[in-house]
Structures are given as C-alpha cells and as structure tokens.
Specification:
45% of the residues lie in helices and 10% in strands. It has helices at 9-14, 26-31, 45-58, 62-75, 77-86, 88-95, 99-105, 107-110, 127-131, 162-175, 194-197, 212-229, 242-252, 261-281, 297-312, 317-322, 356-363, 380-389, 409-415, 449-459, 466-478, 482-486, 497-514, 526-533; strands at 117-119, 141-145, 182-187, 234-237, 258-260, 290-293, 324-328, 331-332, 367-370, 394-397, 421-424, 431-433, 436-438, 441-442. The strands form 3 sheets. Strands 8-7-6-9-10-11-14 form a 7-stranded mixed sheet, sandwiched between helices. It has a 5-stranded parallel sheet with strand order 1-3-2-4-5, with helices on both faces. The protein has a two-stranded antiparallel ribbon with strand order 12-13. Helix 4 (62-75) crosses helix 5 and helix 14 packs across helix 15 (297-312). The longest helix has 21 residues, at 261-281. It is globular, with a radius of gyration of 23 Å. It binds nicotinamide-adenine-dinucleotide (NAD). Nicotinamide-adenine-dinucleotide is lined by residues 149, 151-152, 242, 262, 266, 269, 293-299, 327-329, 371-374, 377, 398-400, 404, 425, 443-445.
C-alpha cells in the first residue's frame, strides 16, 4: 500500500489494488472522499473474508466459484489473495487445476473483463510499441501461452488465457510476488479447434493456427520486445505443444531469462517426489529404476532432470539414461523404432519391444510416472504388477485435470493393498483404505515455480539453470516431514506453500550467486531479505 498514491472517490473503490471497500476507516473515508459512497459500518478484512467464504460456499458448482473469485480479484485484490493464501487447499483447485481447465473450455462464455495482454499475427511489427499499452512499468514475471496444449485438454486457442492468469495468481499467493509485477500473455496465433472457430462467442483470432517460420518469427518478436521493454522479466513458457515447447526452450534458455514450466517445473516437482519416495521405500536414489507412461514434454522433462540428478550422484550420462524407460502411445522407446521425436532418442534403449505390463515385470521399476493425458491407463494390472515387484511402489499419475489422471488415488491404494506412495497432478482428497487414512500428494508445479521466480527476482538472476530446478527439488523434498511420509504423502501440505517457496527462493538465489548469474548483491541475511519482499495481502 505504501507505494500507492492515494486515489480519490470512486477511483479508490474501483481500483482493485487500492480498494478496501467497507474496510476503509472513517479517517480514510474523509481523506479519499468516500463519505456517502459506502454503507455506514466500518468493517475489517476478517469480516470481509468471512463474507467471501459464505458467498463462495453457497455457489453450487466449481465454475460458479471460479467466476465469483475472478470477480473478487477484479474488485479487491488484497482480499482475493488473503482468501487464497489462508484457504489455499480449498481455493487452489478453484483458481487452478482442475477448475481452470473447465474455465478455459468455457472462457469465451464466462468472460467478464479483459485481463492480461493479447498478441495476434495482425500485431506483427508492432509488438514492442503495443507493450507500452501495458500500464505497469515494473513487470518481473511473464507467463505466456499460445493455447495449443492446455493442461491435458488440447488446443483451446485464446481460451487458454485462463492459464497464464491462474499461474500468476499462484506466483502471488504462493511466493508473494507483487501482483503489479505480473503479466499474463496470450500469443493468440489462431486455433485448429473447429468447435471454437464455429462458436459465435469465441473471442480469439478466428483463423487456423499460424505455423512454421511465421509462428517462430512472431514468438521471436515478442521475446525481443520483452527484452527491450522489461529486460529483467522472467518469461515462463506454458502449455505450448510439445515440439514447439522444446524448440522454444532450446532456442531461448541460454539467451534470456526463461523456462518452460511443463518441462522443467514438472521435472522439478516430480524429482522432489521421487527424492521423498526414496526416504519411504528405502531404495537409494542412485539405485532407482523409473518407468514412464508418456514420453511428451512432461515425462521427458522429468527424465532429463533425473539424468542430471543421477549424474550428481556419480553415474555416467549413459548409466543415468539406462535407468529410465519410457512407453508412449506406440509402445516402449526402443532403438528399432523409426517414429521417435528428437527428445525421445536419448531414451530409446537397445532392447526388444514389450507391452507396458511386461515391461514393468521385466524392468522392475521402483517408480512409475504417468504423463499421458490418457485417463485410466494405470489399470489394476499395472498397479498390481508394480506392487508385485516392489514392497512400496511409488506411483505418480500426473495428468491433469483430475478426469485425466492415469488412475485415481483410491485405485492406487486399493490395487496395491495400501502399499503405494501415490501422487497426482490434480488434487485427490484423503482415502481410507482398510481403516488407514492415506494422504495423496499433489505433484503440483506450484510447489516449484513461484519459489524459483521469487529467488530469481531476489538475486537478479540472469538465467535459469537445471541446477536451480535440482536445488528446488531437493529443498522441497527436505520439507516433507516424517509425518507426511507416514501418511503416504510425498509432498508437504499445501498450507506450507509460502514457507516452501521462501526456502526454494533462498536456495535458488544462492545457486544464482554460486553460478555467477546474480546481479543483486548477496544480503547478510538472505532469507530475511527475501521474506521482506514478499507481498502481504493483509490490511
Ligand atoms: P504431450 O502431449 O507432450 O505428451 C503426451 C505423451 O503421452 C506422448 O508421448 C504420447 O505418446 C503419450 N500417450 C498418450 N496417450 C497414451 C496412452 N494411452 N498410452 C501411452 N502413452 C500415451 O503432453 P505433456 O505436456 O507431456 O503432458 C501430458 C500430461 O501431463 C497432461 O495431462 C498434463 O496435464 C500433465 N502434466 C502434469 C503436470 C503436473 O502434474 N505437475 C505438469 C505438466 C503436465
């Protein structure tokens, strides 16, 4: 609040960052010219929060709750974030996965007010100039999507804007990034989704997708415009189609401050879960074998980071890669296949083709990770086979939203006789199996990316490295308590997320300094200095 010039009258009430509504005190009402514009009684944020929760819980379905929260965000930013922070387990699934998936599908129909920044092929040549229309000079975190692979839901075109908006809300809520430093961007290059193109209410660029060189030129112009206008801003690439996600990441990751959350954030949060699982299974990390169902951006990203983690434990690159096996829609990745994408090639081993269950039986993985977008692919036979070859199998069903999970938490516990450590991408509630309560972990990228962003801002890091994602994974795994593990959970409760983000930020900032990538000086008390910058929504 301190950095705000006081606003007067209606402007005070309609500015979401300034507005306190009925909580403006009598003195403030006089000072800001609000007398007569508010009901008599002076409230406070606590009773406003109670009112929000009462109204929220009265809504009969999640999309209505999403709309209600989006409106609150537009009206009173601090009250919105206080609600999210203090009720994170209830609210995160409403502002992010799974509800955000439905919100994106229905984006054009539930649209109230524009948020964020839209770029289309018609803007070619003008993007830098257009960025001057964005009213915030101190942008530090940009989340950008082109809407082509939204969660596991496919091409949602401009409707995908729900994702950058939601992710940035998590940066603020989970790591205290200041809201005015956040910029959601939709690179609206069209859509190949006929249903959207035929929808009269669709709001995006109503053409087939821009592809090939023209597409990459537009992305390049956007990236250059950002470098010019906001040279310190971190760009998070989000929900791009896998080949483009890889192409853009390899093009930009050594050139600018950027990362791809589907590849690297997912990798880090999954690695953290695997580290934590080793504490529960007793199998040392360096001895692990891992089986992936799915070999797209999420699964391969996890594989790549695991290789780095195995190498850190003394394995050669080749030994590390041999620990990882992938099955995609066409079967096991083996050398004889001729249909592999370039990111799959390092993981194609010299062995015979096997079906998925036989591969588990033969390879005996300790950890099973699903990132397919194909629900139900962890069948009873799959989980039973994992349980035959392991005392405590670790099962990650990462596909989002909940309806796409490879299996449910209940199935994982039932089919493993309660022995599995289970984690999912979207949340599952606790499950009682034969009288014991299991708490499924959520391998939610929100444990990682907000803390990375906070650490990057604090240190002024100029690049984001694989080591930073590894450090983040280790820090997160170390925050899993014995009590969490005893309940079968591989992640700390979401209610600890601000502490998790702060701890990750501290380690990421240290890593930035160690690697010579930090621009800011190292403060004496790094943790206190970072904590001090975190946005506090309380008034
Ligand atoms: P992608 O399209 O790049 O990859 C999907 C992969 O799954 C491909 O290799 C495909 O061949 C394979 N596949 C599809 N159906 C299959 C089947 N029936 N059997 C075997 N393999 C099959 O997608 P992606 O970006 O890797 O994302 C995949 C899923 O992971 C999505 O649902 C996404 O929501 C989820 N995800 C979760 C997290 C998280 O939980 N933290 C993060 C990122 C992505």
């Amino acid at each position: 609040m301190a950095s705000f010039k006081p606003l007067k009258g209606y402007r005070a009430l309609y500015h979401p960052a300034f507005n306190k509504s009925t909580a403006f005190t009598r003195e403030e009402r006089d000072e800001y010219g609000l007398r007569g514009l508010l009901p008599y009684r002076v409230g406070n944020q606590e009773n406003q929060l109670a009112r929000v929760l009462e109204n929220l819980r009265r809504k009969s379905n999640d999309i209505e709750k999403f709309i209600f929260l989006a409106s609150l965000h537009e009206r009173n930013e601090r009250l919105f974030y206080r609600t999210v922070v203090e009720h994170i387990e209830e609210i995160m699934p409403l502002i992010y996965t799974p509800t955000v998936g439905q919100a994106c599908r229905e984006f054009a129909h539930i649209f109230r007010r524009p948020k964020g920044f839209y770029i289309t092929p018609e803007d070619k040549g003008n993007i830098r100039e257009m960025l001057d229309n964005w009213p915030r000079p101190d942008t530090r975190v940009i989340v950008v999507t082109d809407g082509q692979r939204i969660l596991g839901l496919g091409d949602l075109g401009a409707n995908g804007m729900g994702i950058p908006i939601g992710k940035l809300q998590l940066y603020v809520a989970c790591a205290g990034i200041v809201p005015r430093q956040c910029l959601p961007v939709m690179l609206d290059v069209g859509t190949n989704n006929e249903e959207l193109l035929n929808d009269p209410l669709y709001l995006g660029y109503p053409h087939k997708r821009l592809e090939g060189d023209a597409y990459f030129e537009l992305v390049d112009e956007f990236v250059s415009a950002v470098q010019d206008k906001y040279p310190q801003a971190l760009i998070q690439f989000e929900d791009f189609l896998t080949p483009n996600a890889y192409g853009l990441l390899s093009k930009y990751k050594d050139e600018i401050l950027c990362f791809n959350d589907d590849i690297q954030g997912t990798a880090s949060v999954s690695l953290a879960g695997v580290y934590a699982a080793t504490r529960g299974t007793g199998v040392a990390f360096r001895d692990l074998r891992v089986m992936f169902l799915g070999a797209g951006s999420a699964a391969t990203g996890i594989g790549d980071l695991m290789v780095t983690a195995f190498e850190a434990e003394g394995l050669s690159n080749e030994e590390a890669r041999k620990r990882l096996n992938f099955v995609d829609i066409h079967g096991l990745l083996v050398k004889s296949r001729t249909d592999l994408m370039s990111h799959n090639v390092p993981y194609a081993h010299d062995r015979a083709q096997l079906d998925f269950v036989d591969a588990i039986r033969e390879i005996k993985p300790h950890v099973l990770i699903g990132a397919t977008g194909a629900p139900g692919t962890f069948t009873e036979e799959v989980i039973k086979t994992m349980s035959d070859v392991n005392e405590r199998p670790a099962v990650f069903a990462l596909s989002n939203p909940t309806s796409r999970a490879e299996c449910t938490a209940e199935q994982a516990y039932a089919w493993s006789d309660g022995r599995a450590f289970f984690s999912s991408g979207s949340p599952f509630g606790p499950v009682v199996h034969e009288g014991r309560t299991h708490r499924p972990g959520q391998g939610n990228n929100a444990y990682i990316f907000p803390g990375i962003g906070l650490g990057v801002i604090a240190s002024g890091a100029t690049r984001i490295t694989d080591e930073m994602f590894m450090v983040a994974a280790r820090t997160l795994a170390n925050m899993v308590s014995e009590e969490d593990l005893a309940a079968g959970a591989l992640y700390p409760p979401l209610t600890d997320i601000r502490a998790v983000s702060l701890a990750i930020a501290v380690e990421v900032a240290k890593e930035a300094h160690r690697a010579g990538l930090a621009v800011e000086a190292m403060p004496d008390d790094l943790e206190a200095a970072i904590a001090d910058t975190m946005y506090d929504p309380v008034y």
